[in-house]
Description:
32% helix; 4 strands; Alpha-Beta Plaits; single chain; alpha+beta
Amino acid sequence: MIGKGENQHPVNSQQEVKRPMIKLLMTWDLRNELEHSYLKFVMREFVPGLMRLGIQPTEVWYTVFGEGPQVLTGGVTEDLDSMEEILGSEEWQELVAKLTGLVTNFQCKVIRASGRFQL
């Protein structure tokens, strides 16, 4: 016979229940004539800016052949409130304004991160 509480396992600080993270997915196409400026901006400003805002980059995919956007990139935050605050910030708006001056067909969406490839 199992006594009261014997089948319960306390959660210690190292085994906290993980909440699903929130992912920002962004896609765009490059403007060939601005590729050098684009690469410089992404490496020096865009990625560091995302990280400063609290978005942890997770992946970047570049389409070489076929249909679809040339670039698919993603980043995560701990929760939806954090993501919404970031996307409402002036710094985010400035980063997007600079990026959209260098690319075409910019789109973004917020989804629940699955840990797998997502579109």
